[in-house]
């Protein structure tokens, strides 16, 4: 879109579409948060509806940005909408699932967005318009957890970039060990966890070296299709990541939150 074409070590990826949430959260709230999120001084790839293109261009005039305009039908997992909604509406699903009143257990478009984060990440990495080695997902509404971060600074910090290099080609996820210590400390988690409502990892921000994205995306896809949908169930992407971290620990680097900040990983890289 704009900004220079020079190489940048890190690219952030996000997306925003109006799915008419059924839980009362309004589109205007998301626009307010997104307005701040996209002011973050880091190269971005943004997947959005046509009506947001000018909104973004006005706010990122001098920050390297690639805008990918899509319709709702273009969202990577949109083709599963009817199949997922049928699962969510079934009596057996409501019986088996912990806390089936969660939005991801009621409205198919919500988990579709959650799981589409991963193919959006890999699409951004395949395009790599900013010549980056590392790619991070950041929720469009992530700014509500920025706290007092100074948006005039370049992000992430130079120290954080060095730490990413030391991490190698693994996938970085924030783990909230203080909430569900039994899950965080477990050596393994069975597929029973896919019916749980306790998320011990953060889904608002994650990522890593471009080599890791494709491996993790394939793993998440397999959990979604073969462990969840094939068994007539669906749960959020945090549950899928929590399950995979225990199954393939060598693929992940875990940042253990040591405070009560929801998105402590964001501050750590700032």
Written description of the protein model:
By secondary structure, the protein is α/β, with parallel strands linked by helices. The protein has one domain: Spore Coat Polysaccharide Biosynthesis Protein SpsA, Chain A (Alpha-Beta Complex). It has 10 helices and 7 strands. A 7-stranded mixed beta sheet has the order 3-2-1-4-6-5-7, sandwiched between helices. Strand 1, helix 1 and strand 2 form a beta-alpha-beta unit. Helix 5 runs antiparallel to helix 8 and helix 8 crosses helix 9. The mean pLDDT is 94.
- Order of adjacent strands in the largest pleated sheet: 3-2-1-4-6-5-7
Query: Share of helix among residues?
Result: 25-40%
Report the order of strands and helices. EHEHEHHHEHEHEHHEH
Global shape:
globular
Would you identify the CATH architecture?
Alpha-Beta Complex
Please mark out the parts with pLDDT under 50 across 5 or more consecutive residues, or reply none.
none
Q: Roughly what is the average pLDDT, rounded to an integer? A: 94
Query: Into how many domains do the coordinates divide?
Result: 1
Please state roughly what percent of the residues sit in beta strands, choosing from under 5%, 5-15%, 15-25%, 25-35%, 35-45% or over 45%: 15-25%
**What Rg is obtained from the alpha carbons, in whole angstroms?**
18 Å
Q: Terminal Cα separation, in Å?
A: 25 Å
* CATH fold group: Spore Coat Polysaccharide Biosynthesis Protein SpsA, Chain A
The major pleated sheet works out as: 7 strands, mixed
Number of strands: 7
Distinct helical segment count: 10
Which structural class fits the helix and strand makeup? Answer: alpha/beta
CATH class: Alpha Beta
């Amino acid at each position: 879109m704009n900004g220079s074409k020079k190489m940048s070590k890190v690219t952030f990826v996000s997306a925003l579409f109006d799915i008419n949430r059924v839980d009362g959260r309004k589109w205007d709230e998301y626009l307010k948060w997104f307005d701040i999120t996209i002011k973050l001084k880091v190269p971005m790839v943004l997947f959005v509806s046509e009506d947001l293109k000018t909104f973004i261009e006005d706010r990122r005039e001098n920050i390297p940005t690639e805008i990918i305009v899509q319709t709702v039908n273009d969202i990577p997992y949109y083709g599963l909408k009817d199949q997922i909604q049928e699962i969510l509406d079934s009596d057996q699903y409501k019986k088996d699932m912990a806390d089936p009143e969660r939005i991801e257990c009621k409205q198919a478009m919500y988990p579709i967005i959650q799981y589409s984060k991963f193919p959006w990440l890999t699409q951004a990495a395949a395009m790599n318009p900013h010549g980056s080695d590392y790619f991070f997902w950041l929720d469009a509404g992530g700014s509500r957890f920025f706290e007092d971060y100074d948006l005039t600074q370049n992000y992430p910090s130079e120290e954080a970039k060095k730490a990413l290099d030391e991490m190698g080609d693994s996938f970085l996820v924030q783990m909230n060990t203080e909430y569900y210590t039994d899950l965080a400390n477990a050596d393994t988690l069975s597929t029973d966890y896919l019916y749980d409502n306790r998320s011990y990892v953060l889904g608002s921000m994650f990522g890593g070296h471009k080599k890791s994205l494709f491996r993790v995306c394939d793993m998440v896809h397999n959990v979604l299709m073969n462990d969840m949908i094939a068994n007539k169930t669906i749960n959020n992407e945090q549950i899928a990541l929590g399950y995979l971290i225990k199954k393939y620990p060598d693929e992940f680097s875990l940042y253990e939150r040591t405070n009560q900040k929801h998105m402590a990983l964001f501050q750590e890289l700032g």
